[in-house]
Amino acid sequence: MNFKEIIEGVYREVKDIDDRGKLASYIPELAQVNPKRFGIHLSTVDNYQFGVGHYTERFSIQSISKVLALTLAYKIKNQRIWKRVGIEPSGTSFNSLVQLEADKGIPRNPFINAGAMVIADILITHLKNPKKDFIAFVRSLSNNPSIDYSETVAASEKSVGYRNVALCNFIKSFGNIENHPQVVLDFYFDLCSIEMNCQELSETFLFLAHDGKTLSGTPVLTNHQTKRINALMQTCGFYDESGEFAFKVGLPGKSGVGGGIIAINPDRYTIAVWSPRLNAKGNSYKGVRVLEKFTKKTESSIF
Ligand code: GLN
Fold first, then answer.
1. What is the pLDDT of residue 270?
2. DSSP 8-state code for residue 284
3. Is the CB of 164 under 6 A from ligand 1?
4. Residue 268 belongs to what domain range?
5. What are 208-235's pLDDT values in tens digits?
6. Amino acid 1: pLDDT
7. Closest residue CA from atom 3 of ligand 1
């Protein structure tokens, strides 16, 4: 497979399309990002790497970090995690409040904000120093000690995070948050503020394409747990656009409002795309296009 040629071709085709997306301006710091940034990077399980465009420039990975938080919580609590958070697609936006009332404070899945807050709560209960321990875990996955939170982005989101504050308090009222909501929210905003570039993102997520092991062989999750995380990414990774993403792209993946998307092809590769303008569902407008063209040209969707 000539990945290089295909990725270069997709990059050229998508680069100058009319980008109808909008920056995530509800977080002031993300509204400052240059909307023309555009990068793609592929990492394969047999160690091939290729990137194009702004693939070495870091951006805010936002909700993509929810997969890494789930991974660590799953490692720690295994099956018990599913008592506190569901495994069904929500069919609602990532920050929706309505479903929580009907579901009595058990969020539909770990990738909507409500679900990620419950996961953050679990990590706070079980880690000695959640902020330090979590970033150490991410660095170990990526074998990259320079990956870090952005204090500026976390503070920016915190200054306007009214809806997330409401979500966390609402879940607490049902008894599904153990720690103080302020502590959970602070950690949640930190998780969302992690920065990576496309290359780092695709490298970090390789364990999900490699039966739960890093490329150097360090076990992160069991085979069974890995299958389940990929299944959740497939069904819930793009909020109320998850069905469409499966339909068009056909890979498990996860998006963030910083404009990043990571997609996994088990036993083969991970691919990261960054383009900051988002469609109405909060997923990168160009990012979805890139992945759709990529799996079509490579005939490498999981279906
Ligand atoms: N930090 C963002 C928020 O809570 C994450 C949302 C996302 O990336 N979809 O709104």
1. 98
2. B
3. yes
4. 3-60+196-297
5. 999 999 999 999 999 999 999 999 999 9
6. 81
7. 113
67, 188: one domain: yes
User: What integer pLDDT is reported at residue 300 of this predicted model?
Assistant: 95
pLDDT tens digit sequence for 245-299: 999 999 999 999 999 999 999 999 999 999 999 999 999 999 999 999 999 999 9
Same domain, 32 and 67: no
Ligand 1 centroid from CA 238, angstroms:
12
CA-nearest residue, atom 10 of ligand 1: 95
Q: Which atom of ligand 1 is nearest to the CA of 239?
A: 9
CA of 237 to the centre of ligand 1 (A): 12
Residue 303 domain-assigned (yes or no)? no
The H-or-E segment that residue 24 falls in is: none
Residue 255 amino acid letter: S
**Domain of 122: which CATH number?**
3.40.710.10
Cα–Cα distances in angstroms (integers) from residue 171 to residues 94, 95, 165, 283, in the given order = 15, 13, 10, 25
Nearest atom, ligand 1, residue 193 CA: 1
Number of domains, the chain: 2
β partners of residue 195: 60, 148
Those residues whose C-beta lies under 8 Å from the C-beta of residue 253, and which sit 6 or more positions away, are 233, 234, 237, 238, 245, 261, 262, 263, 264, 291
In a domain, 302, yes or no: no
94 shares a domain with 185: yes
Q: What is the mean pLDDT of residues 188-198?
A: 98
At 136 the pLDDT is 98
